[in-house]
Amino acid sequence: MQSILPGECxxxxxxxxxxxxxxxxxxxxGSHLVDLLLAQGHRVLGLDSLAVGYSAAQKRANLREATANxxxxxxxxxxxxxxxxxxxxxxxxxxxxxxxxxxxDSWHDSDIWDVNVAGxxxxxxxxxxxxARRVVLASSSSVYGDSATAGGARALSPTxxxxxxxxxxxxxxxxxxxxGLDVVVLRYFTVFGPRQRPxxxxxxxxxxxxxxxxxxxRRGTGEQTREYTYVSDVAAATLAAGTASRAAGRTLDIGxxxxxxxxxxxxxxxxIRGTAARVRGVPSAAGxxxxxxxxxxxxxxxxxxxxxxxxxxxxxxxxxxxxxxxAAPPAQRDHDPAATxxxxxxxxxxxx
Length: 352
Hints:
alpha/beta, Rossmann fold, three-stranded mixed beta sheet, 12 strands, 34% helix
């Protein structure tokens, strides 16, 4: 195990009764969930390898506030190799968010199966052994493939290796549920906001508005639509899934209720920034559905939750986060603009 951040603990350290554990704690969604749990008075055990997807510097920055809180402890390790059952001893709720994400990258990354599926099994097995009350498993709208449309019949029919790994994780959740583990599955729909991964569309669109920013590679016509969900709303739904009694054993869509085309997002960013996004057209990508629509009614009923932030407000918050990062000295930046260079963009995922 590697030690870096204040408030760290060893993998063998017992978390103590009433503690929530968050895997992928330093990531985009995970760090927001950590902040929310701490704000509501929880003790939080974070687990993150700091090694998957993008720079460790951004991930450390994501946890800047959390690491100053005495109720937060971080284990820096790979969940597939850590002695998780010992770490989770006394943990009440496990939020499993750690994964390799990205539809397009998954076509060329065989390791995604081991990271996502073996990682999920390690967490589920450890939670069962440790006697955790509940596991909340982060899944994705990618499990639906082309079937997540308004009024259509929904099915687990992924059209990308990434979506297939998430579907496999859901099946594993069912296997462990038969052994008595309470697992709640949340299918997130296109999450955006501050701390977004550098490979994701909105991050790259905002970066393209800088004077020397790299062009955004728009796949296809730009008329493909997504249901966008602001990251703070996702964190709130995820926390609620860990506590709501009616959520036991359920699988729920978590969507923001706002559906827009990629071209509309580009126009909104241009309006917010006052500078046109630089766009370069590229062919449509394999595994990229034309539209996604969440079935949000069950989440509202079961979790007593509803999204609070729309596209334009959320984009304004994300753009403000980018501006703060641009203005900060390099050593203090929350993200590295070089991570979205023209060279990287040639193979960047749309993640849209």
